[in-house]
Amino acid sequence: MAERPAEPRGPVHVDGEVVATKRVGGYRHLTLTAPGVPERFRAGSFVAVTVEGHVARRALWIHRVRASSAFGPTLDVVVDVRGSGTAWLAAQPVGTKVAVTGPLGRPFALPKEAVSCLLVGEGYAAAPLFPLAERLRERGCAVSLVVSAPDEAHLLSALEARRSVRSVTVLTADGSVGQRGTAADHLDDLVRRSRADVVYAAGPTDVLRSAASAAEQVGAWSQVAVEVPTPCGTGLCHGCPLPVVGEDGVDRVVRACAEGPVVRGDRVRWDAL
Ligand code: FES
User: Fold this and answer.
1) What is the pTM of this model?
2) In this predicted model, what pLDDT tens digit does every residue of 156-168 receive, in sequence order?
């Protein structure tokens, strides 16, 4: 019997190129070629990109992959300018060569059955939830999405998700679009009303913590994509400590980039973060 070709696994370190760049609200979206990375992508994984003048690389959520385009397979990342490294990255024109390692980290775990899922994302960190919504829909899951941000400019486009999800709730802290308030304000209610079996969350710690606790209250599972600085992104430097409770009930510290970034919400020691 002929052997099936093995699926590509593990990260690769490759020379990529910026093939498109556009400003979307307060963010810069970059489309990159990175041979081998789109083929290995799983929702929740990320890439580490070398940035001129910096030893540490920048970790970026993968927002979308395209299996084919005029440039071959590509991936989209969302850059939020927070310092000189991300400012450099956001300013690069089409044609810039960039060194990319990825996909890195543990992705979101997908349910085996068609269950009800609530996805909660704040700001640019909502990026990995969009491909996750598509994977869940392919499995027949009922998907509700909540996207939140301080204001409209920092809301990652929820419109494009509408075809993959049952409902979209938009929250802005300043009330500029959607309902006024933060994810933390609304999550208990949203989780209860969605009757979610699984809550997936991506964003700052307070959002993840609220999502994990709201899920726990209704007996749902939670999967959270943590964001701690990841200087190497590959598990080598141990510079990304994440305090968790292990399967054995013992407190320990794991590497967010290798044992995460996606972990069970009920495993994170939120007070120690
Ligand atoms: S960032 Fe270096 S080990 Fe995680």
Assistant:
1) 0.94
2) 876 777 777 899 9
User: Which of 60, 253, 255, 259 for mutating ligand 1's site (highest number of atoms within 8 Å of CB)?
Assistant: 255
CA separation, residue 159 to residues 129, 146, 152, 169 (Å): 13, 12, 13, 11
Pairing of strands 142-149, 167-172: parallel
Question: Residue 230 CA: which ligand 1 atom is closest?
Answer: 1
Concatenated DSSP letters of 30-67:
EEEE-TTHHHH--TT-EEEE--TT-SSPEEEEEEEEES
**What are 212-243's pLDDT values in tens digits?**
999 999 999 999 999 988 998 999 999 999 99
Q: Which of 46, 101, 237, 254 to mutate to test the pocket of ligand 1 (most atoms within 8 A of CB)?
A: 237
